[in-house]
Amino acid sequence: GGGLGKNGLTTALLNLLANIDLEKRNYFITFRSQSMQKFPERVELLPEQVRFFPIATIQIESLGEVMAEFLYFKMDKTASFIVKKVDKHFRRLYQSIFGCCDLSSVIHYSGYEKGVINLFQQATVKRMIFVHNDMVGELKSKGNQHGPSLKRAYHDYDKVVPVTKDIYGPTLELGRRKENIQIVNNCHDHRSVLEKAERELAFEAETFCTVSLERLREILESGARKIINIGRFSP
Fold this sequence. Notes:
This protein is α/β, with parallel strands linked by helices. It has helices at 8-19, 63-74, 80-98, 114-121, 135-141, 147-156, 168-175, 190-197, 213-221; strands spanning 28-32, 51-55, 105-108, 126-131, 159-162. 40% of the residues lie in helices and 10% in strands. It has a three-stranded parallel beta sheet, covered by helices on one side. Strands 1-2 form a two-stranded parallel ribbon. Strand 3, helix 4 (114-121) and strand 4 form a beta-alpha-beta unit. The chain is elongated and about 70 Å long.
């Protein structure tokens, strides 16, 4: 589930959990415990039926594995002996974290972070990875992804799940397999939107607005036509 930060990925995850039957299966949300140290209250965002599974490990690697991961992650070298060393380390890591669990599938919902991508690569159960953005574009403009890891995941995972048909093309370009791609559009938790619409208008502590709360209330209560634009700042 990523770090459950205040961002679009967490919102999309919570919206999905609000729209599926949580009694049909046992769902565990996993995340790095280190990412929760400053804001442990984030786990309270999860529905009561959903359990959480923090990952807290000390990675023990051989010198050969350290060298292989440097070549793979830092220099994008994909020779078979390098990839085998990387897989050996992540296979051992997967067993140390999830080896005692009787899982039916693993889902990399956030779709980011090369460590988790390679960790779930070693799962012996059904593997799924969601795609929330044009990853070809992100590789070019942001450089915040590891190309070889994405290409392997999109080719090898049992299901690759773009959240809109607009990013089907870049996803196929990376994985080069059609049969494992399945589009699942993002859900919207419309019920909570309707519930919030009944609340008293208020600013949160971090809200910035060019008019006062009183002025905003006057505008909303007026008979004028009102246009609301919802978006985010992203390249």
